[in-house]
UniProtKB/TrEMBL annotation:
Residue ranges constituting the GST N-terminal domain according to the UniProt record: 1-91
Residues of the GST C-terminal domain: 95-219
UniProt-recorded name of the protein: Glutathione S-transferase family protein
Organism the protein comes from: Tabrizicola soli
Similarity remark: Belongs to the GST superfamily.
Transmembrane segments: none
InterPro entries in UniProt: Glutathione-S-Trfase_C-like, Glutathione-S-Trfase_C_sf, Glutathione_S-Trfase, Glutathione_S-Trfase_N, GST_C, Thioredoxin-like_sf
Organism taxonomic ancestry: Bacteria, Pseudomonadati, Pseudomonadota, Alphaproteobacteria, Rhodobacterales
A Pfam family assignment: GST_C
Length: 219
């Protein structure tokens, strides 16, 4: 059985959502981010991203990590794409062209969406949206997101999903990266097809199950 390392309050949410979609069994090792612990190096500290035992799995000291037999993967979207390709059925590619499109949307998610979206979440989470400096930083991130969002809006105005007109791992990967920006409601509302697609992704029972498990973890 594969093993997933990483608490649900991390990018481990991505493979967890997918494995819930597939009803796939996995062992879960809840490694936590070291920066969330008061003393990550204490001998009795919870297994964390700087623990020697975890660094054996991912020397980069980041979660998630995924081990399946001899294969170790340490990038969340490589994990989701691998699972989708090998066990995902219709959530994975049916043809090489679909694989290429899944790659395309996944790369757009990590190169054009994740960075500014995460920055928005971090600023809003720290209350920065109440200060002029924070609002200025959010406006810069929003401007960076408008180009990929316009690209996405054009596609979703004509299609129900990103690839093959069915929910695939491409939707999951992109929805997870864009989720960080949803605190910026007026930005998302500029793109109604994207807004409706994101809401539909989040209404899926497997996403809801992942989200409930995530909220059950200590903040
Ligand atoms: N590109 C990596 C990023 C992994 C990453 O940054 N993980 C965070 C948690 S979401 C982490 O482990 N942070 C702890 C640290 O960097 O020390 C992926 O998508 O898996």
């Amino acid at each position: 059985m594969p093993t997933l390392y990483g608490v649900f309050r991390s990018r481990a949410s991505r493979p967890v959502w997918l494995m819930y979609e597939l009803d796939m069994a996995f062992d879960h090792v809840p490694v936590i981010q070291a920066y969330r612990l008061p003393q990550a190096s204490a001998p009795d500290a919870q297994l964390n991203t700087t623990s020697a035992a975890f660094l054996q799995v991912n020397p980069q000291g980041q979660i998630p990590a995924y081990v399946e037999g001899d294969l170790t993967l340490t990038e969340s979207l490589a994990i989701t794409n691998h699972i989708a390709r090998t066990r995902g059925g219709d959530l994975g590619p049916r043809t090489p062209a679909e694989q290429a499109l899944i790659d395309q949307w996944t790369l757009l998610a990590v190169t054009a969406v994740e960075g500014p979206a995460l920055e928005i979440q971090n600023i809003v989470g720290a209350g920065g949206d109440q200060t002029p400096e924070g609002q200025g930083a959010i406006a810069i991130c929003a401007e960076k997101l408008r180009r990929p969002l316009k690209r996405l809006e054009t596609h979703l105005a004509a299609h129900s999903h990103l690839v093959g007109d069915r929910f695939t791992v491409a939707d999951l990967n992109l929805a997870e990266c864009l989720r960080y920006a949803q605190g910026h409601r007026t930005l998302i509302a500029e793109f109604p097809a994207v807004q409706a697609w994101l809401a539909a992704c989040h209404a899926r029972p497997a996403f809801q199950r992942m989200w409930t498990a995530r909220l059950a973890e200590p903040a």
